[in-house]
Amino acid sequence: MVARRDLMMGAAAAAAAATTTVVNAQEAEAKDVSLGLDPYATPWDPQDPEIPGRMNIARVPDDYFMPGRFAGKTVIVTGSARGMGEVAARRLAREGANVVGVDILEKLGASVIEQIRAEGGKATFVGGDVSEDKVCEEMVRVCVKEFGQLDGAINNAGVMDALHPDEPIDYVNQKNRLMARITEAGDEYFDRVMKVNVWGVFYSLRHELRQMLKQGTGGSIVNIASVTGIRGFGGTAPYTASKHAVQALTKSAAIDYAPFGIRVNSTGMGTTLTPMYERAIEIIKQRRAAGYKDTGIALYKSKSLLEFSDQKNKGSTAAEQVAVMLFLLSPESSNITGSTYNTDGGFTIF
Ligand SMILES: NC(=O)c1ccc[n+]([C@@H]2O[C@H](COP(=O)([O-])OP(=O)(O)OC[C@H]3O[C@@H](n4cnc5c(N)ncnc54)[C@H](O)[C@@H]3O)[C@@H](O)[C@H]2O)c1
Q1: In this structure, which CATH number among 3.40.50.720, 3.40.50.10810, 3.40.47.40, 3.30.70.3420 belongs to the domain 2-349?
Q2: Which atom of ligand 1 is nearest to the CA of 157?
Q3: What are the structural domain ranges in the chain?
Q4: Which of 122, 196, 214, 334 could form a disulfide with 98 if both were Cys (CB 3.0 to 4.6 A apart)?
Q5: Is residue 239 flagged as an active site residue?
Q6: How remote is the CA of residue 102 from the centroid of ligand 1, in Å?
Q7: What is the pTM for the complete model shown?
Q8: pLDDT tens digits along 20-50
């Protein structure tokens, strides 16, 4: 624990030297936030009579961060208006990074960046659709104009269907644009999911990598995939195909750019409590109400090992996912490239 405290104080000093989020880093030291991780586990309450001594795994606290870890580094986060992208953008800024947030939800995205700035972070926002090459070109251009360079990126923007991310759900009238098995899936559903999840990551990578090559200082990129990127999944074939493609882009980019000091990894997350998840639950509810006996998605298996073992069956939190994204983004993961971290609570092991 003493060694960890020394490390953190060193990181805070580095942040101060780089004149980034000094205030936040000092505050963190004062409040001991960086040392505030919960214990590994907490007892079931009330106890499970079937399994004496049963425990819940303690989750990473939502406000946990490591002061100064990204001091002086500039990172692009796509899909930064809400969900995991928002949590990543906020935590990166607290850890000293200059953040470029990108989102199609322009008003919400801009307000998140405003809040980051109000807390003393350095951040800027680019509104737009990552499935358009010119938007990805623009996000890198703004990044270099504002902060001089690009060191890392989290290509996180993604969709599970052809709806606009904040379009109200109306299952019966939107059926051919929503997640479905192949025999029911509409062309628009397949097209949009591929356009955002695959082309969006491709365009993002293309412009990010070009800039990193130009700089000649290496870098680290994390693409957000899914457990559906390595396994088949019920009722959502186009999404599953798109996330397999994200894994393929990740591995290929890792091979091509390792000689230039650029690492490219991905995360394969399972159910995570975000607005996307809430929307999926609403679609399933409306699908059932429309007379479908099966739930489509998650017909055979939906819960991870950790969801089953959690007393409240709670899914992964955005903070848990972001903890791994930022580890992969940081130089601490120097030995990892082209890999997928299955941040899935054990979903894929059984
Ligand atoms: N939540 C889960 O259970 C889960 C599981 C596996 C993988 N994922 C993946 O994680 C990533 C983040 O998901 P989330 O749960 O935070 O979703 P979310 O819908 O809560 O947030 C996604 C963000 O991306 C933005 N976005 C969507 N399309 C965009 C576009 N074309 N251009 C720019 N921005 C766009 C949205 O506006 C939103 O702010 C996605 O790639 C998703 O596929 C999520």
Answers
A1: 3.40.50.720
A2: 24
A3: 2-349
A4: 122
A5: yes
A6: 12
A7: 0.92
A8: 333 444 555 555 454 567 789 999 999 999 9
